[in-house]
User: Fold these one by one.
Assistant:
Number 1:
Amino acid sequence: MCGRFNAADDPLNQVFEELVGHPFPGETNHNTAPTETAWIIRHDAPQSEKLEAVAAAWWLTPYWSKTAKPKYATFNARAETISTASSFREPYQRRRCLVPVCGYYEWQKDGRRRIPYYIRPRTGGLLLAGVWDRWRSRDRSETITSFAIVTTAVTDKLEFVHDRQPVMLSKDGARRWMSRDAQARDLGALLEPRIPVDLYAVPVSAYVGDPRNKESRCLEPVAAAMAIDSDVQ
C-alpha cells in the first residue's frame, strides 16, 4: 500500500520543470496523508498530449458518487482490480496521472511493533502511477478533483517492509502510462511489481506516525539506510 509520502521543492522542482515546464507549485509537506491536497500531473484537456500540474485531494471521489467522500477507502487503487473496480475502471482508461514524490513511508510489522521506513530514490524524485477523477455536486456548486495512487504486489527486494508497494515508474514508463495510445497490454506490464530506480530504505522514528507532524524531522534516520538496486535494465 501507500499511505504517506513526502513532497518538497527539492528535488521536485526539477521533476516538474521537466514534465510541465515550471517548478513544483505546492508547499512542502514531508508527511502527506490521505484526504490532504497534493500535486499531480495530468493531461490539460481530454484529447491533448500536453501535461499540466493540478492540486487534487488524495482520496478519489468517483464522478458518479452521491457524496463528496466515499465511505470506503479510495486513496489507493489495486493494480489487480483497477480495470474492473467501479471507482477506478474509467479513470484507469481515460484519466491516468503521475504523482511526483520525494519518497514514501511504509510500516514494517515486527510483532506488536510497527517500524516506519522512508523509501526514496538515491537521486532525484520518484514518479508514482495514479488515476484521477472530477466530482460535482448535483447543484454544481462544488467540484472536487481527486486522485488515487496505484499499488501492486511487492517485489522481493521490498517485501521485508510490506506486502504491497506503489507502482513506481521510470521516465520511459511514465511516458507510456500517460500515452493516449497506450494499449491494455502495455499498461498491464507497467503494473507488474518492479523497482525502476535505485532506492534507499531508511528506518525513521515513530514521529512520522502522526499525520499532524509535517517537519523534516519525519525524514531523520534512526539507523543505517539500506540500498535497494533497481531491477530494470
Number 2:
Amino acid sequence: MALSKKQKKKRRRIIILSAVGVVVLALGYLLYSYGIDYYRKYYACGGVEIDYYRFPVTGIDVASHQGKIDWKEVYDSKVYFAFIKATEGENFVDKRFKENWKEAKQNNIIVGAYHFFRFNKDGKEQAYNFINNVSLSADDLPPVLDVELYGGNKYTQETKNKVISEIFNCLRTLERHYERRPIVYTNIETYQNFIKGNFDDYDLWICKLCSEPKSLDWTFWQYNHSGDVPGIRSEVDLNIFNGNYSDFINYLYDNKNEETEDIDS
C-alpha cells in the first residue's frame, strides 16, 4: 500500500530526527572521551609527595570562592606566601580581593596578586583593569598573569596568534607600569600551546598535579588543587617556591630592582 503524503512527511521527520540524534550522541561520546583522557592525563593521580627539605617555602592561591579566610590561622599553619585573585578580563574584580590582600599582609604573609586572562578580550584593557585595582609595594611579589585553557577560554588556529599578541600586550603593559617583570601562571597544556617559545623570559608558575615539572625552568609550582589549610573552609590550591628561604627573599627583593630589557620598546 502506497504511503500518503502525510505518512511520507512523518517518516522523513523521523529519519531526520534519528540522524540528528546519532550525530548528537557521537559528539557527546567524543567530548566525554576527550574529557576522560584530559582528566587522566592531568588530574587522575594520587597526588605528589613534596620534599620539603628541597622546597621549604610553601604557599597557596585563593579567590572569592574560598569564602571568608582566617589569615592568622593560615599564617600559623606555616603558609609563607599567597597569590590572591584580583581581576579578570576587562572589568571584573574579585569581590574578596581587597579583604584578602589586607588581612594576609596584616598577618605577615607575603602576597602576590593575579589576573585571569580572557582570550577574547583586549590585552591592554585587561592590564589596566589590574592596574586600577592593585597597588604593589616593594614587599609584594610581582604581578601575575593567569593564562590557561579553562573557564571558557578557547581558540582556533586562526585566532591563536591574536591571543598570543594580546597576552604580550597585557604583559608589557603590566611590566611598564610596575617596572617589574610579571610572573606567568599556566598549566602544561596551555604552556605547550601559548607560552613556550613566546614568553620564556617571564618567570613561570606552573600547574602540574601528577609529577614534578623537572623538564621546565619554573619559579613556582602548583601541585595540588585540593589542599586542606587551617583557616580556609574549602579546598585550596597548594604551591611551592623553587628554592630555600634565602632564595625566596632574594627573589622577592632582587626582582624589583632588575632592569627589564627594552621596557619602553
Number 3:
Amino acid sequence: MNTQRNVQAPPIGGADHFGEQTWQTLLQFAQLLQDEGELRGLVGPREFGKLWDRHILNSLGIEEFLRENSRLIDVGSGAGFPGIVVGIVRPDLKITLVESMERRVQWLEYVVDTLQLNHIDVVRSRAEELRGKISADYVTARAVARLKKLIPWGLPLVKPGGSLLALKGRQAGEEIDEAVAELDRFRVEWADVYHVKVWGSDEMTTVVELRKERK
C-alpha cells in the first residue's frame, strides 16, 4: 500500500548534512514506511503528513547524547523509532531493538536486512524479561509508556553510569515528578529535560535523560 495522498516531503539538503550514503538509506527507510507501514499496522494514515518532522527526524533527538562506539538498547522499537533511524545515522553504535509483538519484530528484521544494518540486532521480548541478560550504555524509548512505568522496564538494562534517554512530549517534567519513587528505587543520580533542535525540522524534540549511579 502506498499512501501518496499526503506524505511529507523530506527536507532539502539531507545529503550535505548526513552524507550521500546515509541520506539515501534514510530515504529508503522512509519509502519502506510509505509502501508498507500502513499495511502492516505500524503507521496510521494521518501520520504520513508529518513522517519526517514527528517521526524520522524526531528520533535523532537522542543522537548527540550517544558516545562513539557505545551500545544502545531501544525498548519497544515498533516501526523503528528511534532505533532504526539512529542506527542509520550512527553505524558506530551497537544497537539492540527490543520488541514483543511478532508482526513488529518481522518488520524490524525485514528493515535491518533490506538496509543492511549489520550493527543492529532484533530481539523479541518484553524489556522486563531481559533483566540480567543484556545491558547497554544507553537505553532509549519513544511513545512506550510514562516514565513511572518505563523506569522499571528500562533502567535495569542500563549499565552503571549509563543513561535512559526517553523521547517525550510536553508533560516530561510532570512525568519526572510522578516517578520520584522509581527514580530513587533504581538509583538515578540525576534527571534532566532537554529541548533539542534537530536538523531539518522546525519542531523541538524533548529528551529526558536519567543518569544511573556508578557502582
